[in-house]
């Protein structure tokens, strides 16, 4: 049985979205970060950083959203959410997953941390302009890749699209313009996927049950 530990409107949506795309059966356990549930000893035993998401597959525990989504994709190979191991397509897939986390997400996370996520004494408003510029550089790279393409890797939807689309939704939340029409079209098409709507609904429903 697969169990995902998450909290609505966080990176756990990536994992739940992937599970929904895979048509997997799974249990969802809400970790109410705002109420400090990430720091409960039983949760810290699974995720030493107290962060979400965490995936548990029987006895196997996995953290890091990109690793979790890739694991789910590999576990349901017939759905084709990740290219097969050992192929050039898989290498390209890895490239865009690492790009999503290290280049695209990083400046947005810097903005979020220095606007609200860090304790006030650690916030440095002066970094915000630099982070916005860094995001625009990453968006330009992404736009160049997506010119004339429907998906970021190959001819089909993959977990790399999930990571990128979820990150671009953060950009929207930070009121950062996507600047390129085809990037906006790509993001809007992915945000419209029924599996994402189901994932958000599942996370919201669990939140309202437990709060
Ligand atoms: N690199 C990790 C980051 C996980 C992360 O920072 N999650 C946030 C929610 S989006 C969290 O749990 N924050 C709680 C905390 O840092 O105490 C991943 O991609 O899974």
What does the secondary structure layout of this molecule look like, with pairings?
Elements: E1 2-6, H1 12-22, E2 26-30, H2 41-44, E3 54-57, E4 60-63, H3 65-75, H4 88-117, H5 128-146, H6 159-173, H7 181-191, H8 194-210
Parallel strand pairs: 1-2
Antiparallel strand pairs: 1-3, 3-4
Helix pairs in contact: 1-3, 1-6, 1-8, 4-5, 4-6, 6-7
Glutathione is lined by residues 10-11, 33, 38, 50-53, 64-65.
Would you mind describing this structure in some detail?
By secondary structure, the chain is an alpha+beta fold. It has two domains: 2-81 and 195-210, 3-Layer(aba) Sandwich (Glutaredoxin); 88-193, Up-down Bundle (Glutathione S-transferase Yfyf (Class Pi), Chain A, domain 2). It is 56% helix and 9% strand. The chain is built from eight helices and four strands, in the order E-H-E-H-E-E-H-H-H-H-H-H. The chain has helices at 12-22, 41-44, 65-75, 88-117, 128-146, 159-173, 181-191, 194-210; strands spanning 2-6, 26-30, 54-57, 60-63. Strands 2-1-3-4 form a four-stranded mixed beta sheet. Strand 1, helix 1 and strand 2 form a beta-alpha-beta unit. The longest helix is centred in the middle third of the chain and has 30 residues, at 88-117. It is globular and about 45 Å long. The mean pLDDT is 96. The structure holds glutathione. Glutathione (GSH) is lined by residues 10-11, 33, 38, 50-53, 64-65.
Features:
211 residues, alpha+beta, Glutaredoxin, Glutathione S-transferase Yfyf (Class Pi), Chain A, domain 2, four-stranded mixed β-sheet, 8 helices, 9% strand, binds glutathione
């Amino acid at each position: 049985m697969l169990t995902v530990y998450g909290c609505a409107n966080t990176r756990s949506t990536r994992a739940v979205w992937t599970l929904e795309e895979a048509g997997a059966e799974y249990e969802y356990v809400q970790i109410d970060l705002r109420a400090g549930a990430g720091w409960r000893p039983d949760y810290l035993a699974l995720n030493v950083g107290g962060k979400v998401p965490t995936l548990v597959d029987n006895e196997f525990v996995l953290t890091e959203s990109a690793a979790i989504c890739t694991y789910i994709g590999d576990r349901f190979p017939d759905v084709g959410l990740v290219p097969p191991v050992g192929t050039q397509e898989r290498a390209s897939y890895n490239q865009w997953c690492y790009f999503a986390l290290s280049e695209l997400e990083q400046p947005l996370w810097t903005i979020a941390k220095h606007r609200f996520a860090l304790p006030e004494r650690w916030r440095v408003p002066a970094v915000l302009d630099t982070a916005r510029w860094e995001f625009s550089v990453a968006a330009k790279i992404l736009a160049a890749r997506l010119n004339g393409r429907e998906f970021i890797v190959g001819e089909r939807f993959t977990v790399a699209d999930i990571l990128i689309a979820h990150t671009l939704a953060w950009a929207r939340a930070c009121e950062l313009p996507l600047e390129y029409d085809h990037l906006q079209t790509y993001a809007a098409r992915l945000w419209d996927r029924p599996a994402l709507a189901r994932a958000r609904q599942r996370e919201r429903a669990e939140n309202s049950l437990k709060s």
